[in-house]
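Flp family type IVb pilin, pasting as requested.
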Amino acid sequence: MLFANKWIGVRTAIQAFARDETGATAIEYGLIAGLIAAVIVVAVTAVGNKLVVVFNSIAAAL
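Structure tokens follow.
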């Protein structure tokens, strides 16, 4: 009987954990922020490489 009561308590805790979605929103926001950061890094790198070419051509013209 004691084992059955503990098993019911464990089962209830597992079910409550499975239904709990409080951390899901924070994880989703974290993933979105990471994706935005990756896009910014790629964009800045691409623009930076093009600026190097422009400044090198200006320096060569001087």
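Note for the archive: The longest helix spans residues 24-61.
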